Protein: Death-associated APAF1-related killer
Amino acid sequence: ALKNMFLTSSYREALLILDNVALRQATEAFDVGCKTLITTQVKDIIIGNNSIYVEVKGGFTQEETVQLFAKSLRTDVSNLPLLQAVKIHNLCKGEPILISLIGSLLEPYKEDLLNSHNLWDYYIKKLTSKDYNLKTQLFDTISICIERLCPELRELYYNFSVFVEDVNITPQVMQTIWNLDNLYDVHEQMRKLQNKSLIVSYYNQELKTFVYGVHDLFLAYLKEKLGCVTLVAQHKTLISAYKRVSNNNFANLPNDNYIYQYIGYHLKEAQCYNEFSIYFDLKFIGAKIKAIGTADVLRDFQLYKTYITRNDNDLLNKLNEYINFVKARGHDLYKYCDTDIIQSGLGQEKESTIYKAALSLAKEEPKSLYLQLQAPQENVYFTHTLDLQQDVSAACFTFDVDQVLVGMKSGDINLWEQSRNHKLYVFAGHTDSIIYLQLCPDRNGFLSVSEDGSIKIW
Structure:
């Protein structure tokens, strides 16, 4: 009866998806004559001579995606517009389900796709803008995959709804959210989800661990599926989980390469507005700076100003004091591991909010030694530190006091805007270390000397 149904005109061009098949009997039972996409860990269950095998290692490579598109259109890879095909691969982030579904949608338009770029560009535009005419088909496919999960695993997967797009999720993050005893349990659950093509993973050499990701479309589906009320509850669950592991003290949050960067976002989405008082907690600010640097702290101060100050003028003045303190002392706190934010705070003016907060914290730690070393007010100054990735060999101010020319040992000369710690331009031409920079008196250029004796006028 099933085979007869798929032979009718209504279903002849249907795509049948068999997910995580383990038995040959299943593929034989569903061999009904229509196009079939099978995901499996057992290659021997595939029957028939017209089968196309694609081995998936986490996600499709660019080459695998292009080959799948070529096979869907029954043509050679050389006949495809590779630029557009690769662009679709990148937008899908190698997700096998999405790429396979798009491949099946391309098939009926073979002539248009091989003779013109218009339809390719149409799909690229829709995927880029996330204005999907394909939304129904894509969400239906995602829904089928998720609903086939066992109830326990499905609930775990719903927890991914709290993440923003394009974020790397470490196993430690999910261990906290899922409240699992060890990382092996996390990897086991992640393996199950990856086998269903619901997440992707790769090994991060810098972090020395696997990191996981969820495609934007899957996140969009989860957010739409759960709705606003449930999403708020999911964010509250995350906040509660991190409170548990930090003993209700956000200054003791684990450095899991995630939470210090996104704590403000989750507090806002969880509607935990009273918790924004942590941005006046020196220990939390110090821990956040140590974990991810000053730029993110300053960004949070601006991004969540309304929640931090509650439009109160006194709190707004207090926030401005914290901003100036982080600008002045944050770089040293981040750069030098032995620096302490309480000691830095004790170096501020005695009437300042920062000093009073630091003094209060110092008194709570009688076994720690802190020194009260205030500089005279007339000698208090702010420093600007440029975070350069290369070795510096020369530098000078320009006629604009906010811009600095920096000569590098590589021979490049960089123009920096110091207030924003932003590189404006690179003057390339020297091949040896820059040893001298001099501005022209007419303000229209400068002179540079490199170690090999060459002189250039810019």
In short: The chain is about 45% helix and 15% strand. Residues 216-245 form the longest helix (30 residues). The chain has a mean pLDDT of 85. The first strand starts at residue 15 and ends at 21.
